[in-house]
Every structure is written in C-alpha cells, then in structure tokens.
Amino acid sequence: MDEDLPPPNDSQSDAPGRLGEFVTLSSRERAALAGLLEPVQHWPRHHVLRHEAAEPSHLYLLTQGWVASSIALASGKQQIVKVHLPGDLLGAPSLCLTTTVDCLTAMTPIAVHAISRSRLIATFEAYPRIALSLFLSAQKERVALMESLAVVGQAPAHVRIAATLTNLFDRLSERGDAPGGMFHMPLTQRDLGDLIGITPVHVNRTLREMDRLNLIKRSDQTISLLDVDRLRRIAGLPVRRYVSGPNRITSV
Questions:
Q1: Are 17-136 and 155-235 equal in CATH topology?
Q2: In what order do the strands lie in the sheet with 78-84?
Q3: For the chain, what are the domain ranges?
Q4: Quick one: CATH architecture of 155-235?
Q5: How distant is the alpha carbon of residue 239 from its chain centre?
Q6: How many CA atoms lie within 13 A of 155 on its CB side?
Q7: In angstroms, how far is the first alpha carbon of the chain from the final one?
Q8: What pTM was computed for the model?
Q9: Please, what are the averages of pLDDT over each run of 10 residues along the chain (252 residues)?
Q10: CB neighbours of 182 closer than 8 A, spacing ≥ 6?
Q11: Distance CA 23, CA 110 (A)
Q12: SS3 string of the chain?
C-alpha cells in the first residue's frame, strides 16, 4: 500500500472544491471562488506544504493526490488527524488562529492551488452564501472528526481500520474513484497506524486477518473492499444523511 502513485482520477478539477457541496452556487459565486485560486503548484511525495506553527497566510485547494494533516506531540511522535483527498480545502482550521495548527504533508505527488486568507475573508463578506457553504462543510468535517475520535478512543484495531476504509471509500466514491469497491491506497502501514493510534505491526496483523476473512483484498497499489456492508457493520457507525441546501437548514 505504499506505492508512490497518484489516485486514478487526478486529472479532474475540483474548483470550487467542496465549497459548493451544500449550496448550489451561482455563476457569479463560482467565478468569485475561481478568482481566488492562485496558479497550480505541483509537489512530490513527502513535500511539506506547510509546517505547524507557521504564519497562516494561505489555504490550499487540493486537486490531485493525498495530503496528511498531522500534529506533533511533545514526545516527538505525530498524530495524523486527517487524510485529505482531492477537492478538500486544506488549512481551514487555522483561519481562527495566529499560527497554523497542523503540518500538511504530501502522501503522494500532489497539485494544489493556494488561496490567500485575506482574499478569502473578503470574498465571504461580498458573497455570504459562500461563507455559509464553508460553514456547513466545516460542520460535516466536525462530524467526521467526532466519529474518528470515538472510534480511536473506544474501539479495537479491526473496528478502527474498518471505519477508516469505509470512510475513504465513501469519500472517493463521491468522485467516482472507487469503482467496485477498489481504490488506490497510498497509505503505508505506518501512516495508517499514525492515523488510528496503533503500531504498524498491529496494522499488518489486522489487515492480514481481514484478508483471510475475505473482507478486503490488497495489492501493491490498490485495496478492494470485498464486503462494504459487512465492513460498515464492523465499524458500527451510522450512515449520515446530509442536507443538500440552505433551505433545508431553515426548515428543520
């Protein structure tokens, strides 16, 4: 699972990314967002896009590849708190801080558009529906992090891995990047351990057991979820239904 290959659907553009997932943006709003995007930057695997405790001058729209968001601990260890996929807006949590909260590291070759923090805030003032859309996307992100914390804090290794794999599958499926349950999997076993709080040895043992039970099938470059429904039952998390627009927010 550690091949240095980009996800298969990297060529498609995601502007305005997930900023439009809850609100149908007008042509003017989409143009305003597109105008925020600085020229595309391409970076190799392991490149640090932004260090922790840096000046939060920019956010980034990820259009190709996978990026890890991690926080360093006093012990010298790191905790991966989020795996970003194409379409994600990187660095948004640091909008409310004077220095950045996380380190952003490329897990594959990546392409990103930088977005000026000051210009984004000015766009929120001019186009409140864009701000609303980002706010709703942030709540969706909060739900995902709450579920991740619950699983990592209380569940055994096989449940943590099942929850992680189904989460990746669901997010990649939105882009058509997981046909038949199969998707590119650049996370190493160490990466996966850093994400869910177990050792690489424990990751390896758990994945081999999942292989044996015909839950998954792995190759050097991909992983196939052979029984997604069963993996969901193991993960034990409900399927969330998200609103599709601001009118439903005001009607419930």
A1: no
A2: 48-50, 103-106, 67-72, 78-84
A3: 17-136, 155-235
A4: Orthogonal Bundle (1.10)
A5: 18
A6: 19
A7: 43
A8: 0.90
A9: 41 55 88 94 98 96 97 93 95 95 98 96 94 91 95 96 97 94 96 96 98 95 95 95 67 40
A10: 222, 223, 224, 225
A11: 27
A12: CCCCCCCCCCCCCCCCHHHHCCCCCCHHHHHHHHCCEEEEEEECCCCEEECCCCCCCEEEEEEECCEEEEEECCCCCEEEEEEECCCCEECHHHHHCCCCCCEEEECCCEEEEEEEHHHHHHHHHHCHHHHHHHHHHHHHHHHHHHHHHHHHHHCCHHHHHHHHHHHHHHHHHCCCCCHHHEEECCCCHHHHHHHHCCCHHHHHHHHHHHHHCCCEEECCCEEEECCHHHHHHHHCCCCCCCCCCHHHHHCC
Tokens of 217: 């099938």
Residue 56 and residue 100 in contact, taking contact as beta carbons nearer than 8 Å: yes
Is residue 130 exposed (0-12), middle (13-18) or buried (19+ Cβ within 10 Å)? buried
Sign (positive or negative) of CA dihedral 173, 175, 178, 183:
negative
Look at the block and give the residue holding tokens 């930057």. Answer: 41
Check if CATH label 2.30.30.220 holds for domain 17-136: no
Q: Are 59 and 89 a contacting pair, CB within 8 Å? A: yes
- For residue 16, give the amino acid letter: P
For tokens 């997981």, name the residue: 178
Q: Is 131 left (phi over 0), alpha (psi -120 to 50) or beta?
A: alpha
